[in-house]
Amino acid sequence: MSEEAHAGGGNRAAITICVILATVMQALDTTIANVALPYMQGSVSASQDEIAWVLTSYIVAAAIMTPPVGYLSARFGVKRLLLVSICGFTVASMLCGMAQSLVQIVLFRVLQGVFGAALVPLSQTTLMNINTRERQGSAMALWGMAVMAGPVLGPVLGGWLTSAYSWRFVFYINLPIGILAFLGVMTFLSETPRNRSAKLDGFGFATLSIAIAAFQIMLDRGEEMDWFGSTEIIIEAVVAAAAFYLFLVHTFTTRNPFVRPSLFKDPNFTAGVIFAAVVGLTYYASLALQPPYLQELMGYPIVTAGLVMGPRGIGTMGAMMVVGRLVGRVDTRALLGMGLVTTGWTFSLMTGWTPAVAASTVVWVGVVQGIGLGFLFVPLSVATLSTLSAAERAEGAGIYSLSRNIGSSVGISIVNSLLTQNTQINHASISTFVTPTNPGFGAPDVARLWNPLSAAGRAALDAVVTRQAQIIAYIDDYKLLMIATLAVIPLLMVFRRPPAAGAASADLALAME
Asked: What is the rounded distance in angstroms from the CA atom of residue 283 to the CA atom of residue 380?
């Protein structure tokens, strides 16, 4: 039995509950806010693309702060960093609930992301530390179930809280969870040894962070500011490019860079990082698109929208449980291929949706899409990291998570920007047929409702045209997600089998998800 496992032996159950609470709190926040976005949008007077900042700001902040977690835990200790993360995340959640403007809520979501980035890796580390090698697989399985519960409970709980109370309670719900987790960790968890000599490549971290942040702001603000017709967007693009250039130069010239270039000599790792970005893009972008579609175009109450979206997480959970047993026994490329084809097929089905689609169809397509995503998450982690050496794996996992989070934030920004832009283009295109000389307006029933010669008729016509323009814009977004999903299939040929498959791969899959 290891020293850490022995230290946690008497309080193992209590520590396990506390770190799982911290994980659930973070996992819930990846989906719980989605269903409440239309309500937040009205409350803070934000546009369709502006309210997406609530999602992207959190993801970007978490992406930037994930790679330094290893250094911070070594330098300051796992317990101390975990307590700071839980406390900071809980306080930031309260501030999100109290926010009175879009600027405030985005700022507080950034704080949530900064503090929340460490919760998942530190929870994994703690569970590994307090359990013997024989118990680690079971501990990771239990932890994985908690993580997978987030996508299932998030939409349902978010819809109920928003309907019964207010959208602010999707953030306030973190207060009791955070307090329990904080008190439990403070009481039961022992501190790990600290490495005061641990160093972080500050310049590399700073330049990469600036590049990511400037690029994301450019994407979020581009549609509103007319892209490169705006001085602001040009400045943000220049800052992002310059910071990334400095990061690359520094990376290839310093002795201990923030990201070691040698990692990318491994074809599995390089392909997996690209793969992870696309998976993040399609997964979170589709999650961001569905709530406004269900609530604004289909007229679903928020609770119903949450209940319709929840089964998607059940599909993911079930698939991950099955895939966890197949990893190491079935070729990872076959599992990934099945996940891609299944997910792409569901996006192709969604390109045929209209607001008349049945709720049962939305549910079963969501479940199948969740199954497809479940076939991607675990095998992709294994394929990406299993060919790295043990010494490189922690750093590789950080870059892998960073890539997936960047893909998620970029995907949300792109689909929301295209949704706004294509709605305007489609509206203008459809409007060319709305003229008094169109013979279709000669029918008595049509003329009574949509008379282009009266103010009321023109207003009614504009509402109908806008609705149709939005439907087509959503179809275009789902087509993009389908193409992005299927476009990475050729990368499957790059992956090679890990040197030792079987139980080791299964353990790695559990530890990564």
From this structure: 14
* pTM of the predicted protein model: 0.77
> Do the beta carbons of residue 130 and residue 78 sit within 8 Å?
no
DSSP output for 20-41: HHHHHHHHHTTTTTGGGHHHHH
- pLDDT mean over 29-40: 76
Contact 76, 24 (CB under 8 A): no
* Cα–Cα distance, 391 to 379 (Å, whole number): 21
> Looking at 92-101, 460-469, 482-491, which range is the least confident one?
460-469
Listing DSSP states for 161-226 in one string gives HHHHT-TTHHHHTHHHHHHHHHHHHHHHPPPPP--TT----HHHHHHHHHHHHHHHHHHHHHTTTT
Residue with tokens 């239309």: 38
> Domain residues of the chain, as ranges?
1-199, 201-257
Query: Rounded distance, CA 76 to CA 66, Å?
Result: 16
CATH code, 1-199: 1.20.1250.20
| Residue range 383-393, pLDDT digits in tens | 787 777 766 66
Tally of helices (H runs) and strands (E runs) in the chain = 22, 0
Quick check: 427 and 302 in contact, CB under 8 A? no
What six digits make up the tokens of 495? 């992956």
Q: How does residue 2 score in pLDDT terms, banded at 50, 70 and 90?
A: very low
* Alpha-carbon torsion, ordered 7, 12, 15, 20, to 10 deg: 130
**Which of 334, 480, 356 shows the shortest CA–CA distance to 412?**
480
